[in-house]
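so im writing up the methods section and need the Pentatricopeptide repeat-containing protein record in one place, dumping it here so i stop losing it
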Amino acid sequence: MASFVKENTFKWNSVLRGFLESNTPGKILLGYVHMRRRGLNIDSHTLGFVIKGCGLLMAGVPVGEQVHTQVLKMGFSSEVVIQTAVLKMYGMFGDLVSAQKVFDETSQRDMVQWNALVAVYAQRNHPYEAILVARTMVRGYVRPNEVTVVSITSACSQLKDLQQGKLLHAYAIKNLLGFDMILSNALIDMYAKCGCLSSARRLFGMMRSWNVITWTSMINGYCDNGFLHEAMALFKEMQKVHVRPDEITMLGMVAMCAKMGESGLGNLVDEYVEKNGYTNSVYMANALIDMHGKCGNIEKACQIFKEMKVRTLVSWTSMIQGLALHGHGMEALVRFSQMQRKGFVPDKVVFLNVLNACNHAGLATEGIQCFKLMVEEHGMDPWMEHYGSMVDLLCKAGLLGNAFDFVVNMPVKPDAVIWRALIRAFKDQGQINLARDALLRLFELEPEHSGNYILKSNFLATIEEWDHVKEVRDDLEIARICKREPGFSSIEVKP
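--- predicted struct ---
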């Protein structure tokens, strides 16, 4: 009977492995339930497949917790392999507290579990914690291997910590037997994200072979640092060596064109995307809407938006932003209303774009209503950009008194940019007293900023108070001299 049970367990483990390899986690759980109902023996291989299946399930958190409880009840809590699998599972859920707890409760940790915890923090955008765990690992006399270095290099990329990244590179050269493609790609990505493109390109040139991740890291490095033509040249070179760009590569190219506002290159990239079948991706469609909006082709952006079968909040935001940039304020408001009717809840970015749309189109009433909707109905605390857009909106509408009262009654302290915008609006529309009051408040905020003296001087010249203009210019010269004077310190030593 024992051999019969064991044989069936082995067969079911093979089935579960097949489900895992075919990425059907739901079937893994059904198989596991069936095994338990049949009273079959559950071994560490079974649990390993089931735990990995839970991690792959989008809504697998409650199921994963139940499986973890069963692991403890079955007496597998002392097995490092199982505990490491549970740790990774919680990491995939984004439950870093539970992942850390599993690690802390493991009595005997091996290199794999240390690496798993470092990777969980790095992959979930907690780079400081990843580096802290690695340092604790070293203090415990566990020597980092290639897997550790890859995860910490990723953390350095997120932090843009070039110094720490160089130290890791030096450690890898000294302690690791050669670099595989994964580590080389991680180092290239780190150098590129830190803006050290010469080191990234040198490492790229030293590699014997490249995959799509290698090329994408290098291309995105050029994109992120504003080297448009170098990125495009590398993209063409990538195709010459018959490495097919993936969606991430193309998203980087689209983002680059959007950032640089290059409509010609943007159209070429768009043609490549359509030709190679990337348009079915909602992420790509969102990126293309953003790119065409920023490159001046709002008609194409509207067409892509219209043809989308599935839209996300980013889709609506990109469309509203594009319409706002092109002065189509009323159309942006229509999209904003449609978005809400479809059940999407606007966030602060959406509200900022709607306010900007109202601002560009001179829709003061609609902008005020939008701001009230954001604050009163959605209970959001505005950013300084929201306040700045509202001030600009009120000033353009000629509601200067309202703009001044709005700034004075803001729940947060207005910055200098807002005060300067008010002063220019007051000066242009002849509101002398309001301009004087705003200047006084600006100098209280930034008493030594030379630009404020120039702004005040120009204002006084406009109203022909020439004596005061000379006083302000003299004050500016004194301020500049005081700023140039080096400071000094002294130490008094008793004999």
